[in-house]
Amino acid sequence: MKLLKNYVQNFLNRSGSYVFTAAVVSRGLSFLASWLALQLIPNKELGVVLFAYNIIAFLTPFGGLGLNQSLVRYGALLKNDEDKNNLFVYVFKKGVLVTVGIIILIVIFSYLFPFKFENTSNYLALLSLVLIPLFVLNIIQIQFRLKHNNKTFSKADIIYNLTLVISVLIFSYFYQEKGYIFAIILAPTVTSILFFKKLNINFSIQNKLEIVNYSFWKYGFYSGVTTVVTNLLVAIDIILIGHLMENPEMVTAYKYVSIIPLSLLFISQAFIATDFVAFTEKINDKKYIYTYIKSYMLLFSLISLLIFGFAFLFSDAILSLFSKDFVIYSESFLILIFGIFGILIFRGLFGNLLCSIGKIEVNSYIIGIALIINIFANYYLIPVYGIKGAAITSAILMWFTGLFSYLWFFYLYKKMTVHE
Hints:
Blueprint: H1 2-13, H2 16-40, H3 43-59, H4 67-77, H5 81-112, H6 120-127, H7 131-146, H8 150-196, H9 214-245, H10 248-257, H11 259-263, H12 266-281, H13 286-320, H14 330-356, H15 360-385, H16 387-415
Helix pairs in contact: 2-8, 2-12, 3-6, 3-9, 3-10, 4-5, 4-7, 4-9, 5-6, 5-7, 7-8, 9-10, 9-15, 9-16, 12-14, 13-14, 14-15, 14-16, 15-16
């Protein structure tokens, strides 16, 4: 118990409570926006929009060619706000330009690819526009973090999700699926405009920074690819269900059955977001790292047991919050809940620890292998078991990626030269 107490206390000392609270509120608002869309838009039409949006969702981290990730890493190395502002201006200008190019490619692809669902091409082309405001909002939030203004960083996240809820309610009510698409684009646009002014950056003055070189772009690109492949691992279920079952209502069902399991990841994300800098700074202190690992795994093992117990008892009631039609998928829901524990306990921690020791590419290899397995497994399981087959595949791969991250971290960490 002392181990847990110290771990939680250290988390709170690093303002973890504020980050966690903001994450809870944002998740709740995001959940509400999804629920409103389900109530206001027919399942068939909503399924087509969700099918298109999932394609955009896994491409979102590649907006700006991953320069937002370069801003995080290299911006943290800069000593003064003036240099950080200059770097932001560079990333903003180059990132938006690159994102426009990506949007053009998506639009061309959307009208060349023979999608099976009607209007998919139009929806995909329209939704691609969200890449620009999402990229801008992301680098704005990163800039607040670089200046140690976590309060405004978290506030921007809450405002974004609140704007999304209001927009979905209004525009989906009047314009159904077209209004939903507009709301998705409007929310990050409005939030970006509101918080852009708070940065107080002079765009007319910019000095060339030495860190902006080939390595800067390479890091961003590599990070973007890694995140895209990770997101594709999640999105591929929706895409393959739509492709193999040819029923947009099944796409909608799986999307909402998986919302709560995937939303639970915010718990570990809040802890890692708070502690990442701390354990990276002490990555060569084996005693500290091992203590952190034990504390984290103990806490999230207990959290996982509590979550599964609650989900097992109330799965029908939870799914009926969306629609009574989804209760028949309670078994798939529980399978996904169990799978998520592989991320909460293992991958969430050890994937980030691999980044801390400079081995981010290992994450890419693990996720890449999992993606290949996912595609082959789902091509067999989805036609046989429906969305339950997709849930089984996802759950197995969540544990696969988590355990392999765990094994690779300890293998590589023991090889490091550690300063005692």
